[in-house]
Amino acid sequence: MRIGVLALQGDVTEHWRALGDVGVEPSAVRRPEDLRHLDGIVLPGGESTTMSMLLDSSALREPLAEALHGGLPAFGTCAGLILLARTVIDGRPDQRSFGLVDMVVRRNGYGRQAQSFECDVPVEMLPGAPVHAVFIRAPVVESVGPLVRVLGSAGSVFGAASATGSATADRSGRVPAQGHEATPVVCLQGSVLVTAFHPELTGDRRLHRLFVAMVAEHASAGSGPGPVGGQDQPVVEAPGGRCTALGA
Amino acid sequence: MPAGGHRTATFTVKRGLADMLRGGVIMDVVTADQAKVAEDAGAVAVMALERVPADIRAQGGVARMSDPALIEAIQKAVTVPVMAKARIGHFAEAQVLAALQVDYVDESEVLTPADEAHHIDKWAFDVPFVCGATNLGEALRRIAEGAALIRSKGEAGTGNIVEAVRHLRSIRSDLRALSQSDRAERYAWAKQLAAPVELVQEVATAGRLPVPLFCAGGIATPADAALVMQLGAEAVFVGSGIFKSEDPARRARAIVEATTHFDDAAVVAKVSRGLGDAMVGLEASAFDQRLADRGW
Questions:
Q1: A82 has a chain B CB within 8 A of its CB
Q2: In a designed cystine with B244, which of A130, B91, B167, B240 is the match (CB 3.0 to 4.6 A)?
Q3: Between B1, B19, B24, which is nearest A201 by CB?
Q4: Whole-complex ipTM
Q5: Strand-pair partners of A188
């Protein structure tokens, strides 16, 4: 099995170690030719604006988009989630994402580093203890479409700036959440797994194992988009307006 | 507090941001406009300061923390993390930077030290700190004080990479030697490094620092970035090298690309073409004052 790690910028080393721990020898993806013969790809954490610029300068954007839309299983964490999302709010105007997961995501939605946090997240499909999740200037998933399966959610102290705008924003522009509404932090659409946090920063390898199992299942089912994890929905790009708003 | 053990400012969270900056370029900026140029060029973070090191060196005088208004203007201008510098030992400046919610504080030898014996107790802060080091002992002392990221000191404001190379080689070489030692020898290592023995044992077993190691001080060209990345730096800080050059926007982007493709000489060659003049730079023997000697 060949799993690549997009190695333009970010915590590539940590994903490398995590994949090694679950018995996969990963390869680095920096050039278009590195995409050849891959069975799956990991998009690591890092700065999504920097990665987006480097995807263009490294001539990787188009071949990677083609591979992803052709059904290549992918696992994106934090910045990786942003790159795979359909709609990004608070990104840079020139920032582009691959639009594979039908979700609206707000970049740095929890705030600055001062609001970065860790907490426990129970994850569907992962029996046993909750996943200990580390959120670093993490994106907030504001809404997901009907094809997205939410596997785990976390309450947040700082909600994303609310669309209703009724609450008063603090100096960082965030609106403190009234309650502790749950925000999706682990999502699956087709053969694309995304987390708003960094499973690669803890020793818990269950999410990497889950992704490797998805890749194995996908590979054995033949090339092209296929059913994963009991879903029989193909990967499609949902048109705008089909997203279900979460929370108030 | 919500359920699920929500905790902020843990060491994992502090170090986590440094992990996310790996493979990237952190650029010194003195205005909001420069911060935008840096972000446009693909900087993973910016360092807000009043004067770049080359100007501090040239103009002399006491160098201090930046004006909070400047830091706030830079925070408004960009979406990438914003770091800012405090003087060595000046915990009150660090408290101000923490109140401004900067993403990282650099306890920096580039500014004039405020305490001749003590660095800041960084465990007392929620904001993460980066500190400079010239050798492994210094790096471990800073980590023992709570630093979540270590950078080489190099010799800031010179455009000369020689000191950063010395520091990186020294740290990496001692890490290799330490990882070959047996348990008994590590007590002598701790004494020699003037670092806590528990930390020395941990580093010897892991074979690496418990925090990322970045390079700073003297990077002026894409090839400089490629050099230090090949020597084991995990990301680079560029101070005067960008905005003291002829074409900052192009040079900044070229250094970003060279940092990513540090082991691909064809890319480094491509991005190095026609960048205009680099910053002028100083020869090592011409340094009137070694900033790297500040801190202990």
A1: no
A2: B240
A3: B19
A4: 0.95
A5: A149, A193
